[in-house]
Amino acid sequence: MKIYNTMSKKKEELVPLKEGQISMYVCGPTVYNLIHIGNARPMIVFDTFRRYLEYKGLKVNYVSNFTDVDDKIIKKAIEENTTAEEISKRYIEECKKDMDAMNVKPATKHPLATEEISGMIDMIKTLIDKGYAYASDGTVYFKTREFKDYGKLSKKNIDDLEAGHRDIKVAGEESKEDPLDFVLWKPKKEGEPAWVSPWGEGRPGWHIECSVMSKKYLGDMIDIHAGGEDLVFPHHENEIAQSEAANGVDFAKYWMHNAFLNINNKKMSKSDGNFFTVRDISEKYDLQVLRFFMLSAHYRSPLNFSAELMDSAKNGLERILTAAEKLRDIKNSGAEGELTADEASNVEKTKEFVEKFEKAMDDDCNTANAISAIFELVKFTNSVTNEDSTKKFADELYNVLETLSDVLGIILEKKDEVVGDEDYILEMIEKRAQAKKDKDFALADSIRDELLAKGIVLKDTREGTKWSRA
Known about the structure:
The chain is an alpha/beta fold. Helices cover 47% and strands 15% of the residues. It is built from 15 helices and 15 strands. It has helices at 37-55, 71-79, 84-101, 117-129, 158-165, 206-218, 232-247, 278-282, 287-294, 307-333, 341-362, 367-384, 391-407, 422-437, 441-453; strands spanning 2-5, 10-13, 21-26, 59-64, 133-136, 139-142, 182-187, 202-204, 222-228, 252-258, 261-263, 266-267, 303-305, 456-461, 464-469. Strands 4-3-9-10 form a four-stranded parallel beta sheet, sandwiched between helices. Helix 6 (206-218) crosses helix 7 and helix 10 runs parallel beside helix 12. The longest helix is centred in the C-terminal third of the chain and has 27 residues, at 307-333. It is elongated.
């Protein structure tokens, strides 16, 4: 399996630090509001990559944090006349609801920054002792120029960075020794949450949080660090500087970054009116559609979000779900007995689609090509099954489709949602069935149309009429 390493700018063979195991840290959201669809992309992409690693038999220690202390959280708390803790707890729960609806598996550990403050203080002490950091008027800064490899991830030259900062005066930063130095610890301001430290009451800088949480739950050196490409600089660059200066070893062996998500070919922005939360999308689409849409392009390619593309994703997902439903019907009502010779041969042919799927996923998690392999499998299963197929044949095909779909986080079978008065719906279905027996097809059609107008879709099968939400 090869993955693109942002550090080397090329695809590399994935070789775990410990055989059979992968340690993976993915930067999580800052929880001050409902997550937006830009947040959703790395969640879905790296959840899928994790699922594939597990499919390949690797044990994955997957850590993804919640940043629960931040200027935006504090601002929101002030606006609502409440505490930062209340804001962060509320939106962590809302985020988990959205993640569940997108079928994103819970991480092995979801650490909270506020629960790891002592570790952050310890790492800052280590950096000061090693000469990589200094305290000034209650603030602790990292000596960026002291870390010789600074810029190695983003490929930024430190002299160019200095030129960019020249003559720029930033309020409250007069105590910096160098304009490029960044904050490890900031002093308390009135009304803000704060913790006791050797440098006075205050709170950690954003960058040190991830360095410490990764170290605690995964170790000094990890296999994979991942996140959105907007985090390459300065966040991940600063994480590398802190972690490697403190721990004395490389921070991560591989760096993975997903590309941006645009809305109708424009950068998502509240001011442009094209800002959507995951919850907004859930009002129009099942979030399985959003997941399928996110995986329809390679994770390193920019992805454009639009109603047309979401509708296309909905149709594509429906093709897979319809094929799965057909196989389930045959599993329930097909012929008894062992596989026929032709069926056994066709089961063997499914290995071709599995190989195509794995080849795509082995090539830097190419979910777009993996979906193409599933579509080929769907077309094949539709062509080789009918009402005379054996239950065992349908079961074999279904297992292959379900296994590959599960890697992508696609749920093939969902419980019917109760929409409106279920007793009324079932009563109308019975009336329609009786009307068809009486050959009163006009009444049968009018019942179907009435239910459809209420968002209830009827589907006639060999086992009777089924209903679902439109």
